[in-house]
Specification:
Oligomer: single chain
Helix content: over 70%
Radius of gyration: 17 Å
Number of strands: 0
Low-confidence stretches: none
Number of helices: 10
Strand content: under 5%
Distance between the termini: 39 Å
Largest sheet: none
Number of domains: 1
Structural class: mainly alpha
Mean pLDDT: 92
Shape: globular
Amino acid sequence: MMRGFFAAIGFLTRIPLPARAFDEATPPSAPLPWYPMVGLVIGACLWVLGWLLSGAPPLLAGALLLAAWVALTGALHLDGLADSADAWVGGLGDRERTLVIMKDPRSGPMGVAAVVLVLLVKFAALASLAQPSVVLLVAPMLGRAALTVAFMTTPYVRSGGLGSGLAEASRAACLVAAIATAVLVLCTGWHGIRALLVSVAVFAWWRWVCVRRLGGMTGDTCGALTELTELAVLVAWAL
């Protein structure tokens, strides 16, 4: 069971793990239910850093937290955000054209602008909050729980993509992970309720957009979903 957890950490983060933590016999779908827990691990690392920076100037603390956040994830989801932004504009409403642009490793002006704007708003939200903040735990967890729910409820449109195997994950295990995430978030009080509501709203909107244009999700749109969810949670918390 823990092999799925380690596989999820290895894919979603840049946290070093010993080679023996990975097993080639682990099913490709095993990591998916563990995604919210990996988000909690990322959040715990950020919370500790926020605690260490509790006496630092807010702007500096926000910048260092954001830099650590990107480093921990290897900018994995930011890449998906950039590809999705380029494809949605350049695709001109056409499904096949959108998918082709998404596979292009180069980033166009819309992709760069999307990444810059998301990072800017994240930084502003972090700088607006006293550190350490519980949102450092909540935002990464909800961002990855959104992936678990997306693969559980939405068709994956690339048969040979990185996420194609995840669609075969146990629906029961994914449901338990999603419910556990919601319960943990609700335990944080009114801020948590607001964060959960905005994350559900972002998920519903982005899923509708992707199904309408593509007929489902891709790895890039899932990365964009995580970034947009984290952004919405941070803004809702800061406001």
